[in-house]
């Protein structure tokens, strides 16, 4: 046993551990770093910024031309493609529509629980001896005139939606009307008379039934606002009060020049556009 132990120790002594000096490890590290620094790495590829082409839309004949308004024949409006040529996203339109409809719910439904119903709290009959079911007070939900179990209470049905999602929904809604050829642009929305009868004839002559008119003015024109109120399926709204639900609810959409400028100012993206001078030279 002792000889075997000595033999094992001798075998262990014959294979000593090799200890490399620290200077050798440092020298190899410096060589590797020099090799890495000498290798030429190409610069990362630059991502090309997409360039979009502006959209052109002919002017729609206005109700009445104002002073300085251009004639509709031969004139077009240049539209920003980042606002009026957004890819169609049905899910975004659904989110924005549900978000607006949720905000309209009053949430005022209210029922009384058994603790809120007026009446005595005395037990109706003894617990035992009558042969009938056990009952407590008269406000029990099992009895007629008692409280309501799990009934509705006043609550807030409004939901939250990120601001950028709402902006994207507006771009998608405007783009849908543009792609379906249901978008028109007038130089201005004016009407000199407040009579509804004359405005109805003018709208039928232009073929603009079931249309939402959007103006970029802070307050719509008084004559047009008064005359259009009594016309069903035709509405006039300011640009800062329009949402996705209003755009999708109406069949057609007509903007004035200031409304187009408002939407492009609040909804556009930082994407370069092809200059009009280059488009004219093509």
UniProtKB/TrEMBL annotation:
The organism of origin for this protein: Crucibulum laeve
Family affiliation: Belongs to the universal ribosomal protein uL4 family.
Lineage: Eukaryota, Fungi, Dikarya, Basidiomycota, Agaricomycotina
Protein known as: Large ribosomal subunit protein uL4m
Keywords linked to the UniProt accession: Ribonucleoprotein, Ribosomal protein
GO function term, MF aspect, one: structural constituent of ribosome
Lineage top rank: taxon: Eukaryota
Gene Ontology biological process terms from the UniProt entry: translation
Gene Ontology CC annotations of this record: ribonucleoprotein complex; ribosome
One Pfam family matching this protein: Ribosomal_L4
Cited InterPro entries: Ribosomal_uL4, Ribosomal_uL4-like, Ribosomal_uL4_dom_sf
